[in-house]
Amino acid sequence: MSCYGCENNARVDELAPRERIVLHGGWRVVHAFNTSLRGWLVLVPLRHIERFSELTDDEAAAFAPLARACSRALEEEVGCAKTYVVVLGEQQGFEHLHAHVIPRMRDFDEAIKGTGVFSLLDLPEEEWLPEHECDELALAVRRRLRPLLR
User: Fold this and answer.
1) Which domains are delineated in the chain?
2) How large is the angle between the packed helices 131-148 and 57-78, nearest 10 degrees?
């Protein structure tokens, strides 16, 4: 069975900025590819695990500061009201544990708030943010993350 997360982790040095915003504490931060929401980040462990309970102590210790730093960077960069942090690893082809850090924009309709935000994911390809926009945002978020992760 192929694993999208592991396939990208294996070639991390070749990835575009949107696929390697930052590497920190056993995690890789990426911009979601199948969304119309600018700033939808995903934290991916650098090794294959499928359950949160499988994290090493070091990976677990790095998770909260990294998720917090991503949240702060998004608040500053995209002006969101807050972020949602959701840990998953269940969708076929994406069983590799991953955590979504999702900007909750101030102008979200009530139907999009909370779990409704997932309606902005898995969209038809023509509705995805263009790759160049994801790369530009990735570089901006990376600049904001560096001082937060020292």
Assistant:
1) 4-148 (3.30.428.10)
2) 120
